[in-house]
Specification:
CATH class: Mainly Alpha
Number of helices: 13
Structural class: mainly alpha
Distance between the termini: 48 Å
Order of helices and strands: HHHHHEHEEHHHHEHHH
Strand content: under 5%
Radius of gyration: 20 Å
Strand order of the largest sheet: 1-4
Number of domains: 1
CATH architecture: Orthogonal Bundle
């Protein structure tokens, strides 16, 4: 049985990124005796949990053809305010509700600016990110807010275990399961993908484009809040600058997700694999004592190669920046 060029091209189009991830895994496993161990893989899944959660929210916005540049700065704002509230109240419910409210509030502002006032996604969300950056620096003075006598229940969110499984991993899997259902098994999910593909055709079909795009920013804001809660619990403090690195990685994850399984658009499963690839790169390069500057270069090159491969193979990637 001969493998034709078209068959090989189709295989690479659908599974090339996954094969690339396996090759990266094999490389690190062959260069470090500590990489391919149960303990290290549990660490990778724990490290990727927050990135996966925030990227899943970002994927909703991207699936609708949009972008959310505010997520990193908004995470810092939620984190410092959450830590401050935890230090001044004994009610964990109040603190968590406030964190979720702030994240949703940022999503509401983004959604109104983009969906109803028709500002370009990139510019509007970047401006909102700038506002949240200034707000969190004013609120915290640019310094971490450490938790004093924090509730053990809250600390268990980011530091606890259910048997051998870290709690952040369980939270990630729950969020992933919900996203897989909503994004891929509901009418809302189908509308989101349709809007990302051809918003005018969807509009003529009678689907409320503005309302659905507004909802995607709400979901992104909610994912930011959940990620911030896990992050604050894990670090035991509100970190004003801790979320800023998440933006680049979330963008990388969502772009990688568009190159998987021949979809050309972000998917829940693609985000999970993309987050694993990015986190595995960070983990493996750190084990090899590669400087963090080179790690940034490596991640950028990996994303460029994955997207370039998609373009060469003729796969359309449905992303609109303006």
């Amino acid at each position: 049985m001969f493998v034709t060029a078209s068959t090989m091209k189709r295989f690479i189009r659908h599974y090339g990124t996954v094969v690339g991830a396996l090759l990266i895994l094999i490389f690190f496993a062959s260069t470090s005796p500590y990489f391919f161990t149960v303990g290290n893989f549990l660490l990778i899944f724990k490290q990727m949990s927050m990135l996966t959660i925030v990227s899943l929210g970002f994927a909703f916005v991207m699936a609708a053809g949009g972008f959310d540049m505010s997520i990193g700065y908004a995470m810092g704002l939620v984190s410092v305010i959450l830590a401050s509230i935890l230090n001044t109240t004994s009610s964990l419910i109040v603190a968590l509700a406030a964190a979720l409210g702030i994240g949703l509030g940022v999503g509401v502002i983004n959604g109104i600016l983009v969906a109803y006032l028709h500002l370009p996604d990139f510019i509007a969300t970047f401006a909102v990110g700038s506002v949240t950056f200034g707000a969190k620096m004013l609120y915290s003075g640019g310094h971490p807010i450490f938790l004093h006598n924090a509730s053990p229940i809250f600390l268990a969110i980011g530091q606890g275990y259910a048997g051998p499984i870290p709690m952040p991993v369980i939270i990630m899997l729950v969020v992933l399961a919900i996203v897989l259902v909503v994004l891929h098994r509901t009418k809302f999910g189908r509308h989101i993908y349709a809007i990302g593909g051809n918003p005018m055709a969807v509009l003529y079909a009678g689907i409320n484009v503005r309302r659905n795009r507004f909802y995607t920013f709400l979901i992104s804001g909610l994912s930011v809040a959940i990620t911030s809660i896990v992050l604050t619990s894990r670090m035991g403090s509100g970190q004003p600058q801790a979320g800023e690195n998440f933006l680049l990685d979330a963008i990388s994850v969502c772009f990688l997700s568009t190159t998987m399984f021949g979809e050309g658009e972000p998917t829940g499963g693609g985000v999970f694999v993309g987050a694993f690839i990015i986190t595995m790169l960070n983990n493996g390069l750190t084990m090899l004592n590669v400087p963090y500057q080179v790690q940034f270069i490596t991640k950028g090159v990996v994303v460029i190669l994955a997207v370039l491969l998609s373009v060469v193979l003729g796969r359309k990637i449905h992303i609109k920046l303006l």
